[in-house]
Amino acid sequence: MLIKRKDFIVTGSLASASLMMPKFLKAFTNTPQQLVPKGNKVLVVLQLSGGNDGLNTVIPYRNDLYYKNRPNLAINKNDAVGLTDDIGLHPELAALANLYQEGNMSILNNVGYPNPDRSHFRSMDIWHTAANSNEYLTTGWLGRYLDAQCKGCDKPTQALELDDILSLSMKGELDKAIAFKDANRLYNTSQAKYFKALDAAHHQEHAAAPVDYLYKTMTETISSADYIFKQSKLCPAKGDYPKGDLGNSFRTIASLILSDINTKVYYVSLGSFDTHVGQQDKQKRLFKDMNTAIEAFTKDMKINNRFEDVLLMTFSEFGRRVAANASGGTDHGTANNMFMIGGGLKQKGILNPMPDLSDLQDGDLKYTTDFKNVYATVLQNWLGADYKTILGKEYELMKFV
Amino acid sequence: MSLSNQSKNIHLLSRAGFGFAAKDYSFINSHSPKKLLEEISINTSPDFLDRASQESKDIAKELLAMKGMEKTMMNEQGDTKKDIRRDFRRQSNEDIRQLSIAWMDIMVNDKAQLREKVALFWHGHFACRDANIFFTQQLLHIIRSNALGNFGDMLKSVSKSAAMLGFLNNQQNRKQHPNENFAREVMELFTLGRGHYTEQDIKEAARAFTGWNFERNGDFVMKKNVHDDGEKTIFGKTGNFNGDDVLNMLLENKQTARYIVTKLYKFFVNDTDIDQGKIELLANSFYKSNYDIGALMKTIFLSDWFYDPKNVGCKIKSPVELLVNIRRLLPMQLEKPDIQLVFTRGLGQELFHPPNVAGWPGGKNWIDSSSLMIRLVIPRLIQDDTEFQLAVKTDDDTMMGNYMKEMRKTMLNNNRYKIKATIDWITVNKVFENTKRENLMNDIQLYLVNKQNNTNTQKVVESIVDNSSREAFIKSGTIGWMSTPEFQMG
């Protein structure tokens, strides 16, 4: 939110406020990589909203059925960026192909869940809450991670979403992540004199009241906004990020990873990938943005020796149908691929077989890996959390991290 | 400590309606809660709310005229006819947006406050998304006309509505391939609640609902050829049950009364401090009355315990409740009414778009750091015409990737907006016409957050109040109070 009103704006310039932070001064004397000790692992989730077409992302360019199903939409072998003899990436994903060749990107195929739902909202709900398709949960998987990890922690900045609105995946029962698009804007809104005064006045009141939960959220927002803002200025990322939301978000994420903020999870979305019509142009434009943002981000992580501790994971609520529709697009499908990017992968390359285009269910791919196994693996092996308390069930762990 | 008459009335209005309205201020002082409840309990059948545009009507006519042959062709080859369907979806989506604005206008202005508030409850209870404006309007009408009527009648009408049958996939529920979705949700979410049925009950009930379907014009149809008329065993009873029989069995089960009363209690009384004894008593009388919703609501709002201070100001207003409440307190003309949808979506309660069939979870779920900050700055944005930036999440189910096109009408550029409202301060000032200057702050506090004692928050509001004139005091005091966490409670 941006707001220009005398009472609602902090006095004094932002620069002078941040200069008062000792950490800020520390940044001048220390090299950035010394700020964070090794082994402080972070997860970055990139949500491809709208249902990305997985088959035109990881392309089976030796598969006749692929070309048969998509006479005008399939991507030719010559255009794709080759990964193996049989498989290539979308032409706009060259930087990702490089990461793959370096052993810093793995691909997981056919990820989905039983009884898939083709509504965006419901399927996203299922991915966010890690629910079965006949189950309705009101908390998200990363929110429950916060609940489990953040008991008694002093700052709720362990999970941050680069957005104006917080996603369900980031809402726990006790704790919720903080959402912001721009650290400066968050700072300006929350540090308004009026809100700070209200907050201070409430601290003087002792009787427990129902409104306390709102004040608790307010207090946390004010202190977190200040903390995030200052941390984001410590070691600003220098990479060449694309203009626009995604580039800005990745720049902020990189800057925060290089600071000594306590954040373990970052969340950012790109979309819409809902390409019923004119898929080629739409997907191309979005991938271009994604490719350059990830390129700049991974470069910054490498230069600063943080890449080994970063895992970037992509997902989409569903893939699209195998056959193209008549409008140069594809309709809602089921299983999809996921990218795992980072310097600390234990299993590299293409982790499981490509979709079997000769074995479809009502024209859709059959899932072979449940996304909840992926979540369990990331929670347990990467974030060091107890996945069973978070997901509520046992899942076989995978080996990519 | 018992509440003053004014305080009781303000509490009643915030629960049995959408809060105190500036134009109704005289009631607050002169009426008893009982009299006030009568005023807002008008239960005439509501007018059918029709926001289907001519364009939707024309396309729908064209689609209806298509024969079975063309329908199959449409699926195989697509092209022109598919485009017609896409056009319909797009137009329908826009009409549904207009429908939600129209319904919010009714919540702001209609005297039948209780009916509309209870309808909003049922809208969350019978949560449904449908991309078809006609089906959406039909379901809304069922809910509004039965809001204070008989729960059994409403359950049956909702269960036979095109929107709900479609949403819960009952077209795919056929004798050879039963689809359990409808049967499951009817039990889990609409009547009994989890844990009061077995998987076997669901399987068998699903068979009873086979063939329940709807025509393309939205009329209910029982397709005999796909209905399973064999013997089923449900809740320990065996017979050739059909869907109506299952619904009747659910209504015969007292657990349904208990489940509905618990949800109503959480929505209308208190969602954190729940008195099981009261719920049991209410459930008994609700069951005995054969599910008379109006009578149940009256019992609740006339009981002493409803006015217990622990039940006052303890509920977090939902985003729709908040916006409607603001508009009732500050009567206003909005240059672009669509701007309201930026907030309802941004704050997580877009009408006709519940998160899933379980509805909006409510309570603390409404609040996180960003939603709270948005809530706190809305009053200021309304008053000042300041520009603000807010990127709301897209909804691909209804927008099909065309988000920008739809939002551009209200957007200045790049997710920047201005509310552009003209507030009728004359009406607001009238609320306080008999208030002495030294009591103004107390009265503003009373009407806005229903508190009478001198609170610490009041001191903060006082510190920013504009003392230059009586009008300026009221204006700045009102906006100041509206920008507090206390105002989020009702």
What does this structure look like?
The complex is a heterodimer of chains A (401) and B (490). Chain A is of the alpha/beta class and 401 residues long. Chain A has one domain (28-190, 218-391): Alkaline Phosphatase, subunit A. Chain A contains 13 helices and twelve strands. Chain A has helices at 14-19, 22-29, 64-69, 94-102, 120-129, 141-149, 183-190, 193-203, 212-234, 245-258, 279-303, 371-382, 387-391, and strands at 42-48, 58-60, 81-82, 87-89, 105-112, 159-161, 178-179, 265-270, 310-315, 336-342, 349-350, 369-370. In chain A, strands 1, 5, 6, 7, 8, 9, 10, 11 and 12 form a nine-stranded mixed beta sheet that branches. In chain A, strand 3 and strand 4 form a beta hairpin. In chain A, helix 7 (183-190) packs across helix 9. The longest helix of chain A has 25 residues, at 279-303. The model of chain A is unreliable at 1-33 (pLDDT under 50). In chain B, helix 4 (54-65) packs across helix 6, helix 14 crosses helix 15 (276-288) and helix 24 (456-464) packs across helix 25 (470-482). Chain B is built from 25 helices and eight strands. Among the domains of chain B are: 5-40 and 253-311, no CATH class; 317-422, no CATH class; 432-490, no CATH class. Chain B has helices at 5-16, 25-30, 33-40, 54-65, 68-77, 80-109, 113-125, 133-146, 151-159, 162-167, 181-191, 199-208, 243-252, 254-268, 276-288, 293-302, 319-329, 339-347, 369-384, 396-399, 403-407, 425-431, 440-449, 456-464, 470-482; strands at residues 212-214, 220-222, 232-234, 237-239, 332-334, 387-389, 416-418, 421-423. By secondary structure, chain B is mainly alpha-helical. Chain B is 56% helix and 5% strand. The longest helix of chain B has 30 residues, at 80-109. Chain B starts with a helix and ends in an 8-residue tail after the last helix. Chain B is globular and about 80 Å long. Chain B has a two-stranded antiparallel sheet. Chains A and B meet through helix 5, strand 7, helix 7, helix 8 and helix 9 of A and helix 6, helix 19, strand 6, helix 20 and helix 24 of B.
